[in-house]
Amino acid sequence: MAMAQGQAARATREAVPPVSRVAIIGGGISGLAAAKQMAAYDPVVFEATPSVGGVWKHCVYRTTRLQTPRPDYEFSDYSWKNRDDPSFPTHTEIVDYLEGYADEFDLWRYISFGSKVVDIKFLGGAEAGFTELWSGTGKDPLRGKPMWEVGIVTGDSNTVQYYKFEFVVMCTGKYGDVPRMPVFPPGKGPEVFKGTVMHSLDYCKLSEEETVELMRGKKAVVVGYKKSAIDLANECAQANQGEGGQACTMLVRTLHWVVPSYSIWGLPFSMFYSTRLSQLFYERPNQGFFRSLLCRLMSPLRAGVSKFIESYLSWKLPLGRYGLTPDHPFVEDYASCQMAILPEGFFDMADRGLVRFKRASAGWCFSENGVVLDDGTKVEADLVFLATGFEGKDKLREVLPKPFRDLVVGKSSMMPLYRGTVHPLIPNMAFVGFVESVSNLHTSELRCRWLSGLLEGRFELPSVKAMMGHVAGEADAMRRTTRFYRRHCISTYSIHDSDGMCADLGSATLRKANWIAELFAPYNNKDYKEQ
User: Fold this and answer.
1) Which top-rank group of organisms is this from (predicted)?
2) Using an 8 Å Cβ cutoff, are 67 and 228 in contact?
């Protein structure tokens, strides 16, 4: 009986009207947040898979955990049931949490599962995207006129069904679906290798038994040194413990700082980057002369904070012993959202010889029996895993029509999104989940609230020229902060970013109870709970 009631409560959308107001593409974190904020428009959520959760459901390893503490990764109006648990949530816990969120706000009724978007057509005319104001007026985009036609295939059918919408929210995300594959000269690619080559995306599809069977007793090479590569190498080491086990070799092209926990010399990590006072000293987009001067004067303090954290990491972790100490400041990784939290016991595996590290700064290629580094070093392998990331923007290019598909990436290699949401030259469409921060969930939720305000007509957007200037200012701020500026990451100015959206909505920008808390207490999603 209880199971039947649960299934009834999760009844999903059975039919899609030929014409609707809002389409949301993707049922991950951003898609669910968008559905909740735009419930007044009875949105249609197209999800290609049979479940919600996005990458947390379909693009994780069995040991993958969140890199953020629970209180920093929750919706403002829906708490974790065990939010005081200090452990990082597993991917199954995250999916359960998202399903609970959908239960709480009755979001299932908007979702059409098994509906893959394969085509999007623009109905607004050739010049509609190139006006002085976004979407012609810069406000009130819902005017009763369909602007997009979305093509869907369901199940095993090859028939494309088209549905019209006034507004489309793209929540397809940056990860999963389209793997980033390294390119090699002829005769030096995977075709010459006698073993197995697998991208991490394909590895995610295997069961625990299949992964252990694949890796046990095999010489494996993992290409990469970010979170997915470290987790994969850790699973490989676990599978090879005991008699007959083989070492896993990580090919490290670019070093990044790794962190064992959110505590630095006994101090909470949030005090260094997540308070209003701490973010005061970092570059922010489009800042004036006096703020630029302050940032320049505070540069020794910023460097001191970074070195303080680096000193702890170098003491706590055997980075020097394995040649894994980066030559750039910690803040550059933090500012580009490339800091990775280590799985528990990772360097213990390295100390036992189950994980090895090879620098491949100048590149590498395949050979018949493994891989060869550009310095001539040969590494034998039976398996080569490519933890080389994803081409999330290619997912957009595949479905967007011309000329909009050519506008997805700007000169800075980032998506030129005003408030991280609206492309100034693409009318009646928004993009959520393409900006990174310490808490991508908070970043997406607040953007969905801002977008809802835009649809309600609560504010007017600046001119297209002004928005493009703002976007360029964000790219410039990133370029001045980190050499890895091609990622749209707001970690060092996230509070300022939130202030801008709150101001647009007419909400308070100062969210704390008093000025002491305002300066010294870390900000998180609960500070942005709607009253």
Assistant:
1) Eukaryota
2) no
